[in-house]
Design a protein that fits this description.
Layout lengths: L7 E4 L5 H12 L3 E6 L3 H13 L4 E5 L5 H14 L3 E6 L14 H25 E10 L3 H4 L5 H20 L6 E7 L5 H4 L4 H9 L9 H12 L10 E4 L5
Parallel strand pairs: 1-2, 1-4, 2-3, 4-5, 5-6, 6-7
Helix pairs in contact: 1-9, 3-4, 4-6
C-alpha cells in the first residue's frame, strides 16, 4: 500500500507483549498503526521509532480504555494523524490469578474495568467511527473453556467479551464490518509469565497436545488473518488459539 492508501488500525495495549507483536505484524501488512498504551510511554515511543525506521506509519496514543473519554480521544488522535479507522484490535487486558474469595473489591473492579468495560468502550466508539468494511478483533481467553481455579473473575470478564463480540457482530448488519475474538491459550508473554514459578510454566507448556507454550507471533498471525480479506466470511466467531488445549 502507498502511504496515502494505507488502512488504519488501532491496537490497544500495544506498547509491549502480544500487542506490540500485533502492531508490528499489521504494520508489515501495510496498515498505519496507532499504538495505544496506558502507562508504558517509553516502550510505546520505542516501538513507534522502530516501525517508522522500517518505513511504516505509526503513532503512539496514551489512553485508558476503561475511560470512555480516553477512548474518544484515542479515536480522535488516530483520525487526526492517520485517518479514519478500519481495524480495531482490543488487546489491552489484565490478569491476576487469585481465588475468588480472596479478590478485593478493587481488584474485581479493575479486572472488569479494563477487560470488559474497555472492550465495551471501544466497541461503542467504533460503532459510529469505524469505516464500513472494517474489522474488529476482541481478546477473550481459552481459560473460559478450562474453568481453572484462581481464574474465576478473569474468566467472567472474558466470557462477557465473548458475548459482546457475538451480539455486536449482528448489530452491525449492513455495514460489512466483521467482529470476531481470539481466545489464546497460555502464551509466553509478560502477562502470562508474571508471578508463575518455573514448574508452573512447564506444566502449562505440557498441557496442549502440541506440548509448548504459544508465542506472541502465534497470536499475532491469527489476528492478522482475522483482519485480512482471507477471513471475509468469518464473523461473530471466537477463535481459540491454544494448541488444542481446549
Amino acid at each position: 500500500m502507498t502511504a496515502q492508501a494505507a488502512k488504519v488500525a488501532i491496537v490497544t495495549g500495544a506498547s509491549r507483549g502480544i500487542g506490540a507483536v500485533i502492531a508490528r505484524q499489521l504494520a508489515e501488512d501495510g496498515y498505519a498503526v496507532a499504538i495505544n498504551y496506558a502507562s508504558s510511554a517509553e516502550e510505546a515511543s520505542r516501538l513507534v521509532v522502530e516501525l517508522r525506521q522500517a518505513g511504516h506509519q505509526a503513532i503512539a496514543v496514551k489512553a485508558d480504555v476503561a475511560s470512555a473519554a480516553d477512548v474518544r480521544w484515542l479515536f480522535d488522535e488516530t483520525e487526526k494523524q492517520l485517518g479514519r479507522v478500519d481495524v480495531l484490535i482490543n488487546n489491552a487486558g489484565i490478569l491476576k490469578v487469585l481465588p475468588l474469595a480472596q479478590h478485593s473489591d478493587e481488584l474485581y473492579e479493575q479486572t472488569f474495568a479494563v477487560n470488559t468495560r474497555g472492550t465495551f468502550n471501544t466497541l461503542r466508539e467504533a460503532a459510529t467511527r469505524l469505516n464500513d468494511g472494517g474489522c474488529i478483533v476482541n481478546f477473550s481467553s481459552s481459560t473460559v473453556g478450562l474453568n481453572l481455579p484462581g481464574y474465576a473473575v478473569y474468566i467472567a470478564s472474558k466470557a462477557a467479551v465473548e458475548s459482546l463480540t457475538q451480539v455486536f457482530a449482528k448489530e452491525l448488519r449492513g455495514r460489512n464490518i466483521r467482529v470476531n475474538a481470539v481466545a489464546p491459550g497460555p502464551v509466553a508473554s509478560e502477562l502470562f509469565l508474571q508471578g508463575k514459578s518455573e514448574e508452573q510454566i512447564r506444566n502449562f507448556a505440557k498441557m496442549p497436545p502440541l506440548e509448548r507454550l504459544g508465542q506472541p507471533q502465534d497470536i499475532a498471525s491469527v489476528v492478522a488473518f482475522l483482519a485480512s480479506p482471507a477471513a471475509a466470511w468469518v464473523n461473530g466467531q471466537i477463535l481459540r488459539a491454544n494448541g488444542g488445549l481446549v
